[in-house]
Every structure is written in structure tokens, then in C-alpha cells.
Amino acid sequence: MAPQIPSEQWAQVLEATGKPLHYKKIPVQQPGPDEVLVNVKYSGVCHTDLHAIKGDWPLATKLPLVGGHEGAGVVVARGELVKDVEIGDHVGIKWINGACLSCGYCMRGDEQLCQSATMSGYTVDGSFQQYAIAKAAIVARIPKECDLEAVSPILCAGITVYRGLKESGCKAGDTIAIVGAGGGLGSLALQYAKAMGLHTIAIDGGADKGEHCKKLGATSYVDFTKTQDIVADVKAATIDGQGPAAALLVAVQEKPFQQAAAYVRSKGVVVCIGLPADAKLSNPVFDTVIRMVSFKGSYVGNRADTAEALDFFRRGLIEVPYKTVGLSELQKVFDLMEEGKIAGRYVVDTSK
């Protein structure tokens, strides 16, 4: 029997850039021919959602906007062309909501680079609502044994850092520095890195975040609020003192991006994931050339990365540190995020 789908639902709606969210009832949409309607049970809260609210990225959001792109739920309706997703399947609403699947990027498995890609909670309504739409070909397939509450942050944070670690080129036994390690992305990056056989230098600020990082498997911790020379301290944390093979930057400030190239070892890789507003990269050309340092951007992940990241979680190798609040309390989460008071991840329960 098909599930009963209401005509209205609760949602958090951004009606004007930079203004508080409105918790209100809005209509439930119907899926198009190649889409599914997902009853979102839980949604992780990402720093990208805060950028969408503030409008400080060089990419306009739709307005009014329902944010969110870490939505885990159950398929309750599907379009007539959808054959490989069933009613009752557990799926995830990701940042990439849809793509053309026929351009050169999509054909190579880089659908996140598709010029026609739509973004959940940015260019189309996302998962801070009880029922959300997504393209059936793009939704994450969540194994039934996975807890939807705990898995929701994997749908962006997990996939993103997992892809970034792959982009670093690090092999088992290598050391990688994770900058912003105590936050939502960093907390997962530490665990994925450990599961992949990497040693990690966690970089963040404060003793509490240091303890948090150590519990998640960090090999060592550098507190940027106390160090007198972060380059020397990061290098000293490696076995040979030459610095880590790579740095994974999930920080939300510009300064760490300027520091990373100085402490990675020669032929090291700086992987940029975090997106501080208006930030720029700068490094001396001479040093970059003679030390053969590489800079890479890593942008979310594709469908294969999604399946792999979820499999690490399914096997119990990744534990998401999170706190759950009701969807009605979402604005409080963004207030804490603005104040830099979040360790780990927040998840909203759409039923509250």
C-alpha cells in the first residue's frame, strides 16, 4: 500500500538573504518523471547552509529557499520513468540534487562538475523540510541496516572529506594534516583517514577540540591558539620532521590556507575543501616549484564516492559525533555555528 502523503508539511524557509529562518507550513511537491519524493527523517546541518543564509558566496541562491543537503529518509513516491528506486527504499538527499548525466563531466563520473547540476538547499529546495524532491539517478542509496539519524552527516560531510582524502594521493602509512579537525567535516576526515591507514595531525583551536580529535583517532594535535610557530610544530609531529605528505583544509578562515604549503613536505599536496568567503590562495612561486608542492581543489564527491563512503559507515568504521535537535530549533544551530561553538555535527529531526 502506498504511504499517505500530506498536502502540507513543516519546513524552515529562508525568505530573504541574511535574515532569520521561518518555521512554517508549505505545500508538499510532486516528483517529476525522473524524480523521487523523499520523506526526510533527519538532516545534517552543514556550514554551507550558513553560507546560503548569509549569501556570501559568489553564487546566488533561489528565494524563498528551503536549505539542507544531508537529508536521510524514505522514498514515498516516484515518477513514471523511475525504475531502479522503489517505494520504501532508504535514500539520501545530497548537495548534488541532479545532473544531466550526458555531458563530458558526467560521462567521466564527475557529475559534481556538470554545468547543469542543481544543488540541494541552494539552487533547489533541500532537506530542511519533511518531504523533499531529488533526481532518482543521483540520490544516495542508503543500506537498510544504517541508522538514518546517524548516517545523515555522511551525505555531505562524509562524502566530501572521503573524496578529499582520495584526491590527496596519500597511501597507507602516510601522514596527512587535517586543518579544522574538530569540526563536523574534520571529525569525519580523521576517522576516514584512520580507516584508510593514514596517520593524522589534527589542527584546531582549544583543549576541548584536542581531546575530541584524539578520541577520533588523531595521531597528534596542534593547537593553533597556543603554538608560536605552526609550521615548525606540524613538521615536528611527523616521524622524520619533514612534514606531512598532504594537508586537508576544511577550515572556514583564510589564514590556514596560506600556511599549509609551508609545512607539507616536498612534493606535498594541499587539498582545499573549506570555502571561506572571499578567501584567496597565495604561495611563493619559487618555493612551489623547487619543492614541487601541488594545490588541489576537491568538491564534494560523485556517486561512486558516495557508495564507498557509505560502505565505510555501514561496516562500523565511521562514527558520526552529532547532537540532534528538532527542525523547529534549526535557527539556534546556525547561531551556535556563527559563534564557533560547534564540535562535531548537528542533526535535525524533521518530526519535531
TrEMBL record:
<dbReference type="InterPro" id="IPR020843">
    <property type="entry name" value="ER"/>
</dbReference>
<keyword id="KW-0560">Oxidoreductase</keyword>
<dbReference type="GO" id="GO:0005737">
    <property type="term" value="C:cytoplasm"/>
</dbReference>
<dbReference type="InterPro" id="IPR002328">
    <property type="entry name" value="ADH_Zn_CS"/>
</dbReference>
<comment type="similarity">
    <text>Belongs to the zinc-containing alcohol dehydrogenase family.</text>
</comment>
<dbReference type="Pfam" id="PF00107">
    <property type="entry name" value="ADH_zinc_N"/>
</dbReference>
<dbReference type="GO" id="GO:0004022">
    <property type="term" value="F:alcohol dehydrogenase (NAD+) activity"/>
</dbReference>
<dbReference type="InterPro" id="IPR036291">
    <property type="entry name" value="NAD(P)-bd_dom_sf"/>
</dbReference>
<keyword id="KW-0862">Zinc</keyword>
<dbReference type="Pfam" id="PF08240">
    <property type="entry name" value="ADH_N"/>
</dbReference>
<protein>
    <recommendedName>
        <fullName>alcohol dehydrogenase</fullName>
        <ecNumber>1.1.1.1</ecNumber>
    </recommendedName>
</protein>
<keyword id="KW-0479">Metal-binding</keyword>
<dbReference type="InterPro" id="IPR013149">
    <property type="entry name" value="ADH-like_C"/>
</dbReference>
<dbReference type="InterPro" id="IPR011032">
    <property type="entry name" value="GroES-like_sf"/>
</dbReference>
<keyword id="KW-0520">NAD</keyword>
<dbReference type="GO" id="GO:0008270">
    <property type="term" value="F:zinc ion binding"/>
</dbReference>
<dbReference type="InterPro" id="IPR013154">
    <property type="entry name" value="ADH-like_N"/>
</dbReference>
<feature type="domain" description="Enoyl reductase (ER)">
    <location>
        <begin position="18"/>
        <end position="348"/>
    </location>
</feature>
